[in-house]
């Protein structure tokens, strides 16, 4: 009961996350793994080359990748989806990526990422 009463009379505070990510009293760990997003270039196109390594290395088998190719022969993901309910946030998809195109962190806020030739949804 003493612990309960101790917390009742302490000052309460609310952090306005994600706009405010740290305070002098509290910061997010640098090892934090947030939700995933696809890195995009300045034109909004996915930087992923659809190599297929991330679905192969994923221990939870939660990544769906369907590769496509444009007229110049450049590969891109037609569909890149991560089922975040199955994801264990191990970070293997980031480590295996040859170009580090799949990112995660405290700035990412999407539930699933669907990449097309023209755009990607993001959070990062």
What attributes characterize this protein structure?
124 residues; alpha+beta; Alpha-Beta Plaits; two-stranded antiparallel sheet; two-stranded antiparallel ribbon; 4 strands
Provide a quick synopsis of the model.
With 124 residues, the protein is an alpha+beta fold. It has helices at 2-8, 53-57, 92-96; strands at residues 36-38, 63-69, 75-82, 102-104.
Would you mind describing this structure in some detail?
The chain has 124 residues and is of the alpha+beta class. The chain has a domain at 33-104: Alpha-Beta Plaits (2-Layer Sandwich), CATH 3.30.70.3270. The protein has helices spanning 2-8, 53-57, 92-96, and strands at residues 36-38, 63-69, 75-82, 102-104.
Please describe the topology of this protein.
Layout: H1 2-8, E1 36-38, H2 53-57, E2 63-69, E3 75-82, H3 92-96, E4 102-104
Antiparallel strand pairs: 1-4, 2-3
As laid out across the biggest beta sheet, the strand order is 1-4
In CATH, the architecture of the domain at 33-104 is: 2-Layer Sandwich
Helix content: 10-25%
Low-confidence stretches: 104-124
- Protein structure class: alpha+beta
The whole-angstrom Rg is: 19 Å
Number of β-strand runs? 4
Mean pLDDT value:
75
Per the principal axes of the C-alpha atoms, what is the gross shape? elongated
**Number of H/I helices:** 3
**Biggest pleated sheet:** 2 strands, antiparallel
Between the first and last Cα atoms, what is the distance in angstroms?
A: 42 Å
Instruction: Tell me the fraction of residues in β-strands, as a range.
Output: 15-25%
Order of helices and strands: HEHEEHE
CATH secondary-structure class of the domain at 33-104: Alpha Beta
CATH fold node name of the domain at 33-104: Alpha-Beta Plaits
